[in-house]
User: Which sequence fits this backbone?
């Protein structure tokens, strides 16, 4: 039995069900030149329900473009993986970050609903040096999370 490494059209992995698209989307999100194209790829990664999308999205939460950072954070919330909890808590705690993005990070964390999330949001909400409006928002989020 011969292994066919190339097809007449496209790349060999495109013939495997669901194998190539996540990698193609990750490449477009990470390396694209057009912000709108990158954002569409980030959104698609969030809707993919594929655990392989988590790592590239984690890399994008520190992107130079605020729209990409916010989109990556929202996408991670959709995937609900526990792997990006620390990265999302860093975004929430980053006082140099845009307030909307920090709020999106809190929302994504609440969607993940893990013990690490609850601990991180509790610590943030209890910090008197943080933005009072954002602390109030995270306190509201805590009321909808398990009391681990």
Assistant:
């Amino acid at each position: 039995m011969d292994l066919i490494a190339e097809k007449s059209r496209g790349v060999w992995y495109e013939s495997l069900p669901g194998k190539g698209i996540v990698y193609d989307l990750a490449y477009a999100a990470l390396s694209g030149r057009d912000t709108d194209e990158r954002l569409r790829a980030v959104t698609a990664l969030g809707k993919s329900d594929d655990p392989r999308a988590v790592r590239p999205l984690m890399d994008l939460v520190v992107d130079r473009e605020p729209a990409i950072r916010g989109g990556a954070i929202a996408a991670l919330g959709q995937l609900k993986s526990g792997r990006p909890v620390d990265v999302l808590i860093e975004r929430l705690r980053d006082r140099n970050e845009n307030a909307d993005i920090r709020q999106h990070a809190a929302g994504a964390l609440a969607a993940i609903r893990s013990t690490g999330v609850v601990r991180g949001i509790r610590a943030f909400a209890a910090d008197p040096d943080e933005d009072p409006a954002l602390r109030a928002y995270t306190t509201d989020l805590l009321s909808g999370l398990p009391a681990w």
The chain has a mean pLDDT of 88. The radius of gyration is 18 Å.
